[in-house]
Specification:
By secondary structure, the chain is an alpha+beta fold. 56% of the residues lie in helices and 15% in strands. It has a four-stranded antiparallel β-sheet with strand order 5-4-7-6, sandwiched between helices. The chain has a two-stranded antiparallel sheet with strand order 1-2. Strands 3-8 form a two-stranded antiparallel sheet.
Length: 280
């Protein structure tokens, strides 16, 4: 199990780097584009991109802005300056440095070999549709309701009677919510709580809200740990399946991850037969 979890993490990083690697080669050969020079040594755009790679797409987006580009290039220059200082002090001859360098070399070789292994791996629309049809329950949205409420303090039961009286007199629910409700999240929206399924609200509130039958129905005051609620049903939304096109991208990504994991795990097992492995 631990090996499977670790392999999943490796695959996540690998796919992210693989996707990033596709961007490295698009802008007029970044390996030849010089962005700075330190002690007569060129710093290329490729070096900057490799510097940004562990930080993901947000860092790449920052690099697209003039201010972000300057800041990032300054960081790469600082790194080069410290590297030169490290060389002058012969820090690269330390055993721990050599061990870390060798470990990095092996990791990069492993990632390159993995990328080579999965480069032709494809997930088709048919694969995604078969998964969708075979796992319908995963894509079913539960029954939901759209409701409003007016919340008053626990000791203010007399206020609930006043609200009910005004509702019967024809005052609109949203006006009364703005006037009386102490719920900071919904009072300014006329008590609107939006849509929600079962299992989200406190039990007393949920039971009363889902017991309402028709849009426009209003509950009697219901007490919870937060105070007294008066609830208005706006709509009932029955359980429904999310459309295939809506969830297709997530399915494609999940299947890509699964296929990648299976392929790399199988090939790893095959490599153990080629190279002698001893575990202690």
């Amino acid at each position: 199990m631990a090996r499977k979890i670790f392999l999943s993490l490796v695959i996540t990083a690998l796919l992210a780097n693989f996707a990033y690697g596709a961007d490295v080669n698009v802008n007029n050969d970044p390996a030849k584009k010089v962005v700075a020079r330190v002690a007569s040594q060129d710093i290329t755009e490729l070096e900057v991109m490799l510097f940004l790679q562990p930080f993901g797409q947000q860092a790449m987006m920052l690099y697209q802005s003039e201010q972000g580009r300057k800041m990032i290039i300054d960081d790469v220059i600082s790194m080069r300056l410290y590297a030169l200082e490290g060389e002058s002090k012969k820090l690269d001859e330390a055993p721990e440095f050599k061990a870390a360098l060798e470990n990095t070399r092996r990791a990069m070789l492993a990632q390159s070999a993995m990328r080579e292994m999965i480069k032709d791996l494809k997930v088709t629309d048919d694969d995604a549709k078969k998964f969708y049809d075979s796992n319908a329950s995963m894509f079913t949205q539960p029954e939901r309701i759209h409701a409003r409420h007016i919340l008053v303090k626990p000791e203010s039961e007399d206020v609930t009677a006043q609200i009910i009286s005004e509702l019967k007199a024809g005052v609109s629910f949203d006006v009364l919510a703005r006037k009386y409700s102490i719920d900071p999240g919904s009072a300014s929206r006329g008590g609107d709580l939006g849509e929600f399924p079962k299992g989200v609200m406190v039990p007393e509130f949920e039971e009363a809200a889902f017991a309402l039958k028709n849009p426009g129905d209003i509950s009697q005051p219901v007490k919870s740990q937060f105070g007294w609620h008066i609830i208005k049903l706006e709509a009932k939304i029955p359980a429904s399946a999310a459309p295939f096109e809506q969830v297709k991208p997530q399915i494609m990504q999940e299947l890509q991850n699964q296929k990648t994991q299976e392929l790399l795990k199988t090939h790893s097992d095959e490599l153990e037969k080629v190279y002698k492995v001893e575990r202690f």
